[in-house]
Amino acid sequence: MKKHWHRSWFLLCLSIAFISLLSGCSSAVAGLARPSKTTTTSDKVIKVGILHSLSGTMANSEIPVEQAELLAIKQINANGGVLGKQVVPVIEDGASDNATFAEKADQLLNQYHVATVFGCWTSASRKAVLPIFEHNNGLLWYPVQYEGMESSPNIMYMGAAPNQQIVPAVNFMTQHFGKKVFLVGSDYVFPRTANAIIDQQAKQLHMTVVGEKYVPMGSTDFSTIITQIKKANPDYIVNTLNGGSNDAFFKQLHEAGIAANTTPTISASVAEQEVKGIGNTYMAGQYTSWNYYQSQNNPENKAFIKAFRAANGANSVTDDPIEAGYNAVHLWAKAVKKAGTTKVAAVRQAAKGLSYAAPEGKVTIDGDNQHLYKTVRIGKVASNGVINTVWQSPQPVKPDPYLKGYAWAGMLNQGQ
Amino acid sequence: MSTVIMQLFNGISVGSILLLAAVGLTITFGLMGIINMAHGEFIMIGAYTTYVVQLIFQKYFPGGFSAYVLVALVLSFLITALLGYLLEKIIIRYLYDRPEDSLLVTWGLSLILQQLARNIFGAPDVSVTSPKFLQGNVAIGANIDLPINRLAILAIAILALGGVAYLLFRTKFGRNINATMQNRQMAAALGINTKRIDSLTFALGTGLAGLAGCAVTWIGSIGPSIGQDYIINAFITVVVGGAGTLLGTIFGSTFMGVGNTTLEYLTNPSIGQALVLILVIIILQFKPKGVFSLNSRKIDD
């Protein structure tokens, strides 16, 4: 009898655990019906793929972008859809794993036959799906700033190219704080390429790079690097860490007494979302370089923030990659309307020179390289966690992924 | 000279964090033989407990905000210990003497716990502000500043270790644990309730993970996947030191901490970690059971 009771107790608990896992998945899908695999392009709907990490270490960053993309789809559907059809998202989980990203991209294109895909975050995941999009002539809308040195006809780059983020950030900091810089980054393709760019730029600006250190992804101990920073005594720090390492880095800078007003840090991957996670105490006075901040005061941004909060809770924040994901869906819809079809070649043609009044201001797709003309903004974190713009480019800057416009960058873009 | 002292302190500090993360594993892995891949998730639960306690203090007792630390330390231990106790009762007790299965089941469990945390607290990281008395430095000479929160973590690690040592070697409960782990039938024959000992021992292990979770909130991030940042190094610490011995855990964590920071300083962080792992492999070649391996009287050894 006793044994029997134990078994049913065990089964009960197992089923509770299983149900809670299921509820996790279903809330991510947000009640959207998943079209069956057998139907090909239906007459009533247009299927689009959403491919982000909904689990694993990148989920923290990618889920809000996914939410913004779903929000934009909802808005488009509320206004009658595209070409008279409703847009239906097919959501796949890249699971923070590049091989999974590739597999799911293949599935979206060849089994679900989606019209286009919005997705990816890390450069590694983008590089993993790129051959699949090129081979199947798909179209990926990529929402994050990145290291440049790439321009695929099958990708629309919604984030900043290096000349719209890294290069102006170093110019700004050198002008205001001095010529000695310390570089800290996670050990993967974006920070290494970004810092290779900075190394070249430093020669041009007669700056000294007094340290260049990379930590493995997810690293949470910076005590040694901080000892090295103290010893090198730089005028400012360029931070290209990604994910949870940022929390540890800023907390440990603060505890070591390296203050923002004497040795400021400028970050390439810390936006409003991350500031919230790191804590205002540790971020006040630090600098960031992006194209969009939540604090921007214009009607488009107000409407975007209002809609995003209505969909995802009053405490949710918007930031640059989230906004870029939102822009991507709206730009795709505009291009499809202009082309009159969802065929990739026609959409790509229609997208050339297409503008959109985004929350960050006007963005325009550059016909040559499928990146965006974007306004560059240097931000400073206030004590309440808001990032305020302290400098911005007078007009949207032409994207230059290979830094062809910079003579000193000759070494870098030979590979193309 | 000051750099050497600073680096030595950094090494000990990193070691003390590892020690906190690993001492619970020493008990569940070393003594009980359960490969608990969800150990990191108990660190995560301890960290979120600290976050919730901090929120409650911010809202209801802003005057006594700094005191949240003490409440958080106690609660992060108790809540994770309670969850560990339930987990042992529901799942783990079916897995004794099946280490491969325990690995798979607890790994699945770690995924479930991460997803639950993501659903409850949201995907983005959350932050905990250290209380005023844990911020700042103790300067003990030119260029030698010891951060107070790191000193506090060191103190907590030493206290936790002392507490576990006392419990295991000086109390009746500890004697019962040792007896049960060495010879279950004999212990049961002598009237020890071995099932209860199993549950409580496992709860002690997970509770210590919760305590580690509380401590790491002052230096790192709090997100659904923070457990993953610590679990591998914690296992290496236990294995290299010798599973099941406290002395081995002290050695393992100091070796990993000082080794990492020193080699990182001399080379760079990625290479430094790789070099430490190479050293670990070499040590395990000569000491397959770890440096302080126990000459166990366990019946099946």
List the helices and strands and how they pair.
The complex is a heterodimer of chains A (416) and B (301).
Chain A: H1 2-29, E1 45-52, H2 59-78, E2 86-93, H3 98-110, E3 117-119, H4 123-135, E4 140-142, E5 155-157, H5 166-177, E6 180-186, H6 189-204, E7 208-215, H7 223-232, E8 236-240, H8 245-255, E9 265-267, H9 272-278, H10 280-283, E10 287-290, H11 299-312, H12 320-339, H13 344-351, E11 355-358, E12 361-365, E13 372-373, E14 377-381, E15 387-392
Parallel strand pairs in A: 1-2, 1-3, 3-4, 4-5, 6-7, 6-8, 8-9, 9-10
Antiparallel strand pairs in A: 10-14, 11-12, 12-13, 14-15
Chain B: H1 2-31, H2 39-60, H3 68-90, H4 99-121, E1 137-139, E2 145-147, H5 148-170, H6 172-182, H7 184-189, H8 194-216, H9 227-241, H10 246-266, H11 269-286
Antiparallel strand pairs in B: 1-2
Helix pairs in contact in B: 1-5, 1-8, 1-9, 1-10, 2-3, 2-4, 2-8, 2-9, 3-8, 5-6, 5-8, 6-8, 9-10, 10-11
Structure description:
The complex is a heterodimer of chains A (416) and B (301). With 416 residues, chain A is α/β, with parallel strands linked by helices. Helices cover 42% and strands 18% of the residues of chain A. In chain A, helix 6 links the parallel strand 6 (180-186) and strand 7. The longest helix of chain A has 28 residues, at 2-29. Chain B has eleven helices and two strands; from the N terminus they run H-H-H-H-E-E-H-H-H-H-H-H-H. In chain B, strand 1 (137-139) and strand 2 (145-147) form a beta hairpin. The radius of gyration of chain B is 19 Å and the shape is globular. Chain B starts with a helix and ends in a 15-residue tail after the last helix. At the A-B interface, helix 1, helix 2, strand 7, helix 7 and helix 8 of A face helix 1, helix 4, helix 5, helix 10 and helix 11 of B.
